[in-house]
Write a structure and sequence with these properties.
Helix content is 31%, strand content 21%. The chain is α+β, with helices and mostly antiparallel strands. The chain has a 4-stranded antiparallel sheet. A hairpin with a 3-residue loop joins strand 3 and strand 4. Helix 3 packs antiparallel against helix 4. The protein is globular, with a radius of gyration of 17 Å.
Length: 156
């Protein structure tokens, strides 16, 4: 088992486009469906796996391009060290002063370590100034507990 790290920052309105953040339905619309439904399905089916937008379900980071992986670690403590470093780097830009609190940030890292050690995934999000959004994720891989059928983006 190992852990992949992902980071995304961008405009809040782009992050809010949830249709591009969810995987397409496993079955395409049936023949004879409305053309706009078929076109929308094709758009999402083509865009979802290549989009850098954070998926609504954390495990689906594994189907995104491998170039989006910020780091990979066998040990949860190394993955959470990366998370702590990112939180410290972005904290001055957090829109909420309460979220900048160092005790609160340390609690996020501690909780993430516990979750990864149990085989889970970690996903954190913060509003930044402008308005922008920061998404941080640590995804347990080989296999992922929530989506074991998803292959490791780095291959076997």
């Amino acid at each position: 088992m190992h852990h992949h790290a992902y980071l995304w920052t961008g405009p809040k309105d782009r992050f809010d486009r949830e249709a591009l953040r969810r995987p397409p339905h496993p079955e395409p619309p049936p023949p004879g469906s409305r053309p706009e439904l078929t076109a929308r399905y094709r758009e999402v089916a083509g865009a979802f796996p290549t989009s850098e937008l954070p998926p609504l379900e954390t495990a689906y980071w594994l189907v995104k391009p491998r170039s989006l992986i910020q780091g990979t670690w066998d040990e949860a403590k190394n993955a959470t060290a990366w998370l702590g470093e990112r939180l410290a780097a972005y904290a001055p830009r957090f829109a909420s002063g309460a979220q900048r609190d160092t005790g609160r940030l340390a609690a996020h890292v501690t909780a993430a370590a516990e979750r990864l050690a149990a085989g889970g995934d970690v996903s954190l999000g913060f509003y930044l100034e402008r308005p922008a959004f920061l998404s941080l994720a640590l995804v347990t891989c080989s296999p992922n507990r929530d989506r074991p059928a998803l292959a490791c983006p780095l291959g076997p």
